[in-house]
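In response to reviewer comment 3 from the previous cycle, which asked for concrete evidence that the modeling workflow produces usable outputs, we include below a single protein chain processed end to end. The sequence was submitted unchanged, and the resulting structure tokens are shown without manual editing.
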Amino acid sequence: MLKQIPCFTDVEPPSTRMSDFFPLTKWISVNLGSNPPIFISAQLSFGTPKSTISRIQPIQDNTTQETAEVVVVGVRNLMRQRALLFEQLEALRQAKGKKEMARAEANRLKEGGKTVEAKCKEVKQENDLLKKELEDLRASFASQKELEEEYQKQVYEMFFYGYQCCMKKNDITQDTPSFPSNDEDIAPIGSS
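The workflow returned the following structure tokens.
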């Protein structure tokens, strides 16, 4: 039974065009109703609003002159829309330019921040080094002062030892010399 129907018996090669499966446009036929009759086929995309299609339908009652006027008005409208679109495009380009300038400024500031951060780190390291040197100098000064005190102590001990040796050598038993004198203000001759 199916063999009698041509679509089942005649094998057509499979279509490779996407438009066969998913057409992106649709054809609308409009009769302009003049003498002789004029038909217009408009190929519109599937996203075309119904308001546009509804504007095409009343054209059927217009004459060729009226239709031309409608088309001219439509073209002028499209030209205005095109001009507005170009203005918006120019504004978009300017905004992109400003955005790029801001991005470049941000990158420059970022690099400057990294430079300042590196300098800050370098100054901090130098500050730490100077603090360490100061601590070393203080420790060195303290040890030098201790050595100086030790040296002075040794000098006093040597002086005292020499003094004691001198006393023993000269057979002096008391530390304070006694001078026989009646006058307290007059020093004996030869003593200094």
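Strands lie at 25-31, 39-45. We consider this sufficient to address the reviewer's concern, and the full set will be provided in the supplementary archive.
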